[in-house]
Design brief:
By secondary structure, the protein is an alpha/beta fold. The chain folds into two domains: 139 residues, 2-Layer Sandwich (Nucleotidyltransferase, domain 5), CATH 3.30.420; 72 residues, Nucleotidyltransferase, domain 5 (2-Layer Sandwich), CATH 3.30.420.200. It is 33% helix and 27% strand. The chain has seven helices and eleven strands. The strands form two sheets. Strands 6, 7, 8, 9, 10 and 11 form a six-stranded mixed β-sheet that branches. A five-stranded mixed β-sheet has the order 3-2-1-4-5, with helices on both faces. A hairpin with a 2-residue loop joins strand 2 and strand 3. The chain starts with a strand and ends with a helix. The relative contact order is 0.20.
Length: 224
Amino acid sequence: MILGIDTSSARGSAALVDNGRVVEEIVSETPSSFSRTLLDMIDSILSMRGGVGALGGMAVTTGPGSFTGIRIGIATIQGVTLSTGIPVFGVGTLDAMARASGGSDFTGPATVLVDAGKGNAYFADFDFLGGKPERRSPDGFAPLSELEQRAGKRAFFCDKGDRPRIGPLLSRECGVFHHSAAAGAAIRAEEQAASGEAGDVALLSSNYVQKSYAEKTFNNLREG
């Protein structure tokens, strides 16, 4: 069984996946409390299925998304794996979201979005043609208006927690996937393990796509 966690998107989540099937899932609607509640979420979901001893691996979303959330998720999973020795896999948030499409009957090309604030989004293009989603672009950052202009016949999908902010800025509906990004991360980690990859905590790294506001401000002050 694989434990997945996500604190990079609007809703924090934890999920357990066994052979591609989501067996347990918890979603938090209070992102500001991740630092206080994440360990409780992990403990709660593990208690449903035999505890830490039942795990064959763990997965954590690495972004793009909330800068603070990404750091909380990675730091937490690093602490857990260092104390237990359980292999851990880092999974990009957009890849995790794409793999959370279980139960969705959508097929075709789509752009997966994560709210980046101020009318912007992180995005990646995928084809959903049955089975595993196929990535068609690297992670990017752009205004939603530009993404809509380039979309053509592509559908849009986002996290349920992001839809109230993203939806009004699009002329078409932003669909949501059946499961959380945590579940998608665990599904992707199973794929990685099956292909022979070793989950190594030393390889975990964040994927911010763009610099934080604080970094941009500091660089502007230094340069000018």
